[in-house]
Each structure stands twice: as C-alpha cells, then as structure tokens.
Amino acid sequence: MKYELTFLLNEKEELKNLKELIALQKGKILKEEDWGEKTLSYPIKRNGKAHFYNYILEIEKSSVPELRKKLNFNEKLLRYLLLVSE
C-alpha cells in the first residue's frame, strides 16, 4: 500500500536513520520532498524552527504498526503524520 509520511526534524542528519528504518520495515520511498526550514507557530520540544519533509512510501500494511512504534520512540523526530495515500 502507499502511504504519505510528513514529518518535522530539527537535525538533517536524522534523515539517513529514517530512511534505514523504512528500509528495515521492507518499505520503499517512492518520492521525497524537502519543504525547507520553517518557523513554528509554537515551540515543539523547545524548538522554534524545524525542517519539513514529505515522503510517499510503499510499505506492507502489516509493517505499519511497527514503523509507527519506532517513529514514536525517535527523540529527534519532532512530529510526524502517516496517512494512507491513493
């Protein structure tokens, strides 16, 4: 299935780890977008700015709960949204 993952990072170096995490869950990134650094409306984990990214993923439905669990434990990931994409 295709999913859309939008997330906020405060460190660009964490991108490599996220790509490895997706690969470990047998997922494939079909499209990557870097929306750039933006000022946040309110601080998240004491950060006033964050780098916004958007990925279109292809991943098995059975792997999604494990991916969400690992994303939740990632301290460097400020926020994420994982949606089913058409």
Structure commentary:
- By secondary structure, the protein is of the alpha+beta class.
- It has a single domain (11-81), classed as Ribosomal protein S6/Translation elongation factor EF1B (Alpha-Beta Plaits), CATH 3.30.70.
- Helices cover 24% and strands 52% of the residues.
- It has 2 helices and 4 strands, in the order βαββαβ.
- It has helices at 14-24, 64-73; strands at residues 2-9, 28-44, 47-58, 77-84.
- Strands 2-3-1-4 form a 4-stranded antiparallel sheet, with helices on one face.
- The radius of gyration is 13 Å and the shape is globular.
- The mean pLDDT is 94.
Brief summary of the model shown:
This protein is α+β, with helices and mostly antiparallel strands and 86 residues long. It is built from 2 helices and 4 strands.
Write the layout of secondary structure elements.
Layout: E1 2-9, H1 14-24, E2 28-44, E3 47-58, H2 64-73, E4 77-84
Antiparallel strand pairs: 1-3, 1-4, 2-3
What characteristics describe this protein?
86 residues, alpha+beta, Alpha-Beta Plaits, 4-stranded antiparallel beta sheet, 4 strands, 24% helix, globular
Q: Tell me the major beta sheet.
A: 4 strands, antiparallel
* Order of the strands making up the biggest sheet: 2-3-1-4
Fill in the CATH topology: Alpha-Beta Plaits
> Spans of 5+ residues with little confidence (pLDDT < 50)?
none
The structural class is: alpha+beta
Number of strands: 4
Q: What oligomeric assembly is this protein in?
A: single chain
Work out the strand percent.
Answer: over 45%
Query: In which range does the helix fraction lie?
Result: 10-25%
The CATH H-level superfamily is Ribosomal protein S6/Translation elongation factor EF1B
Mean pLDDT: 94
Tally of contiguous helical segments: 2
Q: What's the CATH architecture?
A: 2-Layer Sandwich
- How widely separated are the two ends? 9 Å
Q: How large, in whole angstroms, is the Cα Rg?
A: 13 Å
